[in-house]
Amino acid sequence: MVVGPLLRGSAEELFCDARNLESLLRLGRARAAVTGEPVPLERLSWILACRQGLVRPPKSGAEAVVSTLETLACLSLPAELWEQEVLPARVPGYDPHWLDRALFDAGMSWVGRPDRRLAFLLEGDLALLAASPESTTTPSLVPTAGARYTFRDLQSQHHLPADQLAKGLWEEAWQGRTANDGFAALRGAQTVGFRFPTFDPGVHRGRRGRRPEAPGCFAGHWYRVETNTGGEGDAVDREELSRDRVRLLLDRYGVLCRPLLEREEPALRWSSLFRSIRLMELSGELISGTFLADLPGPQFTIPALLPLLSTDQAEEVFWLSAVDPASLCGVDLPLPVRLPRRTTTTHLVYRGWSLALVSRRYGRVLEITLPPDHPDLGKCCGVLQHLLSRPLRPLRRICVEEINGAPATTSPYLSVLRAGFDTWVEGEEVILHRKRPGGPVAR
Fold first, then answer.
1. Which of 2, 214, 264, 321 could be cross-linked to 218 through a Cys-Cys bond (beta carbons 3.0 to 4.6 Å apart)?
2. Run of H or E residues at 429
3. Are the C-beta atoms of residues 313 and 352 closer than 8 Å to each other?
4. pLDDT for 68
5. Is 271 helix (H, G, I), strand (E, B) or coil?
6. Which residues pair with 178 in a beta bridge?
7. What is the pTM of this model?
8. Residues contacting 368, CB < 8 A, separation 6+
9. What does the pLDDT read at residue 226?
């Protein structure tokens, strides 16, 4: 027998035979299934962009950074990708200081993963990631669990050169054993390519005997990442944790299916969550159906997202890297348009759910589907502006060699580039620089 408030909208305690209740749940699931016409699969890029804040970001500044990191929580990406591509695509005018504020004001943190990848976490999210530090017999450079140490504190305890200590801390960080409470240390380490200078904060002194501030790669406080495999508790606790993972992924993708979850951490992939997805469907929290045509396998969503799936027209312009979490490059889907390879040097621009521009090799090769006189073409070139002005490792210039298979120097799109950039024609290349007020005249 099953006992509890079994009728929707009623708190009365009822009794039901388990088999009868299972039959009733299956009947309810069949009634809730969506039977309308599925939308074309080409709209999936726009749906992901809407869910992940690439289209009409609702907030700005540090608040927008927090919103973005909440949506992408527990997703591990190459460390440099976050500030080079992911956050600038979602936060207009992104400033690195906004990420620093987000980590402190919203109580967020990051955890390292192998191959210099990292994931951002809300408080308590480590259980969702099911991440535990790699087992090792080597003691941690952070001596006490629960305590936080500056780089100077750790150096005074271990009596190690600064470059050796920094190298050891970052090796532990990529194993998921230690982390830093800010992002300045990671940003500084990226700037020097993780080849740490021989700065010694215990020796050098400034005026009046004061020690100078440590460079960025030695900033912040280091701490141990508490072991958490997500397996504690009884079966009910583990099931609720699994359902929280499903809800996190619904916020990220809107529609759940196997191909979209292949790049997630193991605990958030289709095979790990399918049982919970089915149980959430039986309980009425999720609905199943064929929402997107030609999408292989079962599809699940929540009723509140059905209006987004049925949108008839979209003309918003947005850009993203080919390796962005919302990018479908490299995903095994029967899309009507062949997407480029999933590489860091490739960027895509969409107008609604139509691919408007593809930039390969950091702008050297452009493929544009809009006509030269289209009013949104200037917006589509915003991805080139991003490459020249992004906060981390911006390009000094872009050398356009080819547009739609023809030489860039004779392309009808050259006038559009001249309107948005300081341009020079050198040989067979069109050189683009950021347009500056009162700068040199394009030629």
1. 214
2. strand 429-434
3. yes
4. 93
5. helix
6. 224
7. 0.85
8. 356, 357, 377, 380, 403, 404, 413
9. 80
- Which residue type sits at 281? E
- pLDDT score recorded for residue 198: 62
Residues 6+ apart with CB under 8 A from 90: 52, 53, 54, 57, 64, 68
Predicted local distance difference test score (pLDDT) of residue 211: 44
Other residues' Cβ atoms within 10 Å of the Cβ of residue 195? 10
Within 10 angstroms of residue 443's Cβ, the number of other Cβ atoms is 8
How would DSSP label each residue in 240-254?
A: HHHHHHHHHHHHHHS
Token digits of residue 118 = 């990292």
Helix (H) or strand (E) holding 313: none
Q: What is the pLDDT of residues 295-351, one digit of tens each?
A: 889 999 998 888 887 777 778 999 999 999 999 999 999 998 899 999 999 999 999
Structure confidence at residue 134 (pLDDT): 60
3-class secondary structure per residue, 159-193 = CCCHHHHHHHHHHHHHCCCEEECCCHHHHHHHHCC
Q: What six digits make up the tokens of 179?
A: 């982390």
More confident residue, 220 or 33: 220
State whether residue 351 is helix, strand or coil. strand
The pair of structure tokens assigned to 250 is 């619904």
Residues facing 216 on adjacent strands: none
CA distance 148 to 135: 21
**What six digits make up the tokens of 50?**
């809407």
Position 209: which residue type? G
